[in-house]
Amino acid sequence: MRKPAAAKPPKASAVQAAGACVCGAVRIEIDVPAVWAWHDHSQRSRHAQGAAYATYVGSWKSRFRFLAGEDCLTRFEDVEAGTARSFCARCGTPMLYERARSPKIVNIPRAVFTGRTGREPRYHMNLTEQADWTWAGEPLGPLKGYPGVMRERPRKKTRPAPPDVMFEP
């Protein structure tokens, strides 16, 4: 009698990008290239990431794998927004962002990857929600006495124009 054939694991691409949480308990991998990458300026992502905006990499779920620590994830579901966010229960690192409208894709914060993902973030979402305090590329200069620290140069004060004597009474 023949033994049933073992199920073949999904075929991975030749190149993967690995990522992990801060404490290393949760380790993941995606096949490269990622589907896409973007900057999300929404208030929800800002709060979830604790940053001016969040940068995500999207991967097909079929090209995403846990290498370790799936059981260390805690999940928050935002029913109103139709999203779920998973993060490491040990160190709090955000690890996954899933949206009900894209059930076959998992979004991963770009910062958890140690190397390239095959996709550069070229898209900006929810710009209408962008925080007014977000750095927008103003010129920077070194802060004297603090190597490696850059600061925005102070804006030049505009002086009021001198009164025009021609129009004085």
Task: Give a brief description.
This protein is mainly β and 169 residues long. The chain has one helix at residues 43-49; strands spanning 16-20, 27-31, 36-40, 54-60, 64-68, 73-78, 83-88, 94-99, 105-109, 123-125, 140-142, 150-152.
Would you give an account of this structure?
By secondary structure, the protein is mainly beta. The protein has one helix and twelve strands; from the N terminus they run βββαβββββββββ. The strands form four sheets. It has a four-stranded mixed beta sheet with strand order 9-4-3-10. A three-stranded antiparallel beta sheet has the order 1-2-5, with no helix packed on it. A hairpin with a 7-residue loop joins β11 and β12. The longest helix has 7 residues, at 43-49.
Summarize the topology.
Blueprint: E1 16-20, E2 27-31, E3 36-40, H1 43-49, E4 54-60, E5 64-68, E6 73-78, E7 83-88, E8 94-99, E9 105-109, E10 123-125, E11 140-142, E12 150-152
Parallel strand pairs: 3-10
Antiparallel strand pairs: 1-2, 2-5, 3-4, 4-9, 6-7, 7-8, 11-12
Radius of gyration: 24 Å
Give the strand order of the largest sheet, numbering strands 1, 2, ... along the chain.
9-4-3-10
Count the beta strands: 12
First-residue to last-residue Cα separation: 113 Å
- Helix vs. strand class: mainly beta
% residues in beta strands: 25-35%
**Low-pLDDT windows of residues:** none
The backbone outline, from C-alpha atoms, is elongated
User: Which range best describes the helical content: under 10%, 10-25%, 25-40%, 40-55%, 55-70% or over 70%?
Assistant: under 10%
Number of helices: 1
Overall pLDDT: 89
Largest sheet descriptor: 4 strands, mixed
What order do the SSEs take from the amino end to the carboxyl end, as H and E?
EEEHEEEEEEEEE
